[in-house]
């Protein structure tokens, strides 16, 4: 069965797009067919993958609101991409009155499901309708959390949203785990935050090894490359491989 993984946190700047791109790449290297879906109007994932959002004629927006086929750009670093641009911001308002709005993304993905082993959905940093329909379409949700003091403050709302989806719209949604990001073991706050994340969230799912804070990710994104292609010896590459391996055997 295709695993559709929503990378979800309502906080911005927690490395959702970076994680989506890099985990997708490592799964593709394991001979998995991977599709990335950008559901964020800021279109960071689209830009990271080397497309210019403002120049795109077709994006996820047309698939959600225009009932058009999902526009897929093929074989970018061994992955496929359904891109986004700022037009997607209008979908928040338009979906409020749309028929069967909860199912719009799920239905857009259905024609291509059998073509992929993994579909990653890069959710926007909000608890709005775009994140909600992403969770409805997903089989699993992966939660990146920044290892800072404030990180756990919004977790209750995040888990409440997941629980709301699981209560009715998508009862089979599973939590794939939590990825601590931007970890700095040189600071007391980093170590304490990682311990708090582990203590508070281990009951909901796997806590993966933390991804260290590093300018390498930004440098790789600027070159439109996964970290492993930009610097194969970067210490985070082995951690990303380990997380991808765990995702590859999800039930």
TrEMBL record:
Top-rank taxon: Bacteria
Domain AAA: 2-175
Record Gene3D superfamilies: P-loop containing nucleotide triphosphate hydrolases
Pfam families: AAA_31
Any coiled-coil regions, as ranges: none
Record's protein name: ParA family protein
